[in-house]
Amino acid sequence: MAQAAQPAAPAVSLAALRAEVRALEGRPDSGGRLAFGIAEIDRRLPGGGLPLGALHEVEGGGADRAAGAAAVLFVAGILARRGGAVLWCVERCDLYAPALAAVGLDPARLIVAEAGGAVLAAMEEGLRHGGLAGVVGESGRLDLTASRRLSLAAEAAGTPAFVLRRRRFAAGGGTPRGRGEEPAAAPTAAATRWQVAPLPSGLPAVLARAGDGGRTGLARPLWHLFLTRCRNGEPGGFVVEACDDEGHLAPGPASVSLPAAAPLSAAGAGAPDRRAGPAAVGDRAPRPRGRIVAFPGAGRPGAGAGRL
């Protein structure tokens, strides 16, 4: 006797299964996602966007200042699209406030902590405090244990955390200082790992803006953006226009070819150049007198840097 046909099992998406596992483990998908608005990037990220309650690594695709500045501006552009205060932890403060404002991150939102050799600990403390739009730490060192602690803290708070693997340079010279740094390819608990390499910007273009018709100006800087690691996603490389004054990227021109491999990481050598757009870091920034500094209103005309 023929057996009755069994009803077809309902289709279950991979995202739904992951959400169910997180719920069983008591780990809700905190923080949500932030889409870049570029289909080629978003389709490679789990859930169609950057996980916000997670740890991310970002480094310049080279050992020069331009690569480091591009990495800083990439992170600043992401955080510009979120409201609230941003904790930025550094060994010593050399951020350039007008460059951050140029990609939409109002320096008045920044709390900059000069943490010396305790950058990762300061990041973790900020994440556990909560109430922040994001936490950034500039550190050449990130081992599996430290990254796991930061990842758990970011997930619990629903706050994005970024470790910037930015090289520092001796004052007045082009030689990077690599004291205490580890290879960026070492395993960590970060959800994503990015490299940002500056490219020469395009030819002058006519910029059409509301109210002024059209005028000729420089095109936006170009970046090679590499997603070198993505948990539950797909790595890839992209040519993009650098962040605009609201923090948004845009697809780059199709005429610019993408190299077959990611560029030289920050662990390599290179000569300094100025292709990243506005300088995000200062070569000889004055050392602040306090541990916590801020830039109230630095993006507005006539306003100077302040200190908390």
Indicate the topology.
Elements lengths: L13 H11 L8 E2 L4 H4 L7 E2 L3 E6 L4 H16 L5 E5 L6 H6 L7 E5 L4 H11 L4 E5 L5 H14 L3 E5 L2 E2 L6 E2 L14 E8 L5 E5 L3 E5 L4 E9 L5 E6 L8 E2 L40 E3 L11 E2 L1
Parallel strand pairs: 3-7, 3-10, 4-5, 4-6, 6-7
Antiparallel strand pairs: 1-2, 5-16, 8-9, 10-13, 11-12, 13-14, 14-15, 16-17
Describe this structure in words.
With 308 residues, the protein is an alpha/beta fold. It has one domain (43-301): 3-Layer(aba) Sandwich (Rossmann fold), CATH 3.40.50.300. It contains six helices and 17 strands. The chain has helices at residues 14-24, 39-42, 65-80, 97-102, 119-129, 144-157; strands at residues 33-34, 50-51, 55-60, 86-90, 110-114, 134-138, 161-165, 168-169, 176-177, 192-199, 205-209, 213-217, 222-230, 236-241, 250-251, 292-294, 306-307. An eleven-stranded mixed sheet has the order 15-14-13-10-3-7-6-4-5-16-17, sandwiched between helices. Strands 1-2 form a two-stranded antiparallel sheet. β11 (205-209) and β12 (213-217) form a beta hairpin. α5 (119-129) packs parallel to α6 (144-157). It is globular.
Lateral strand order in the biggest sheet: 15-14-13-10-3-7-6-4-5-16-17
Q: Element order, helices and strands?
A: HEHEEHEHEHEHEEEEEEEEEEE
Q: What is the straight-line distance between the termini?
A: 83 Å
Enter the CATH topology name.
Rossmann fold
Structural class: alpha/beta
- The CATH superfamily name is P-loop containing nucleotide triphosphate hydrolases
Secondary-structure arrangement, i.e. CATH architecture: 3-Layer(aba) Sandwich
| Level-1 CATH class name | Alpha Beta
Q: What spatial form do the alpha-carbon principal axes imply? A: globular
How many extended strands? 17
| Low-confidence regions | 175-180, 208-212, 264-276, 283-291, 293-308
Largest sheet: 11 strands, mixed
Number of domains: 1
Rg is: 21 Å
- Strand percent estimate: 15-25%
Percent of residues in helices comes to: 10-25%
The mean pLDDT is 76
Oligomer: single chain
Number of helices: 6
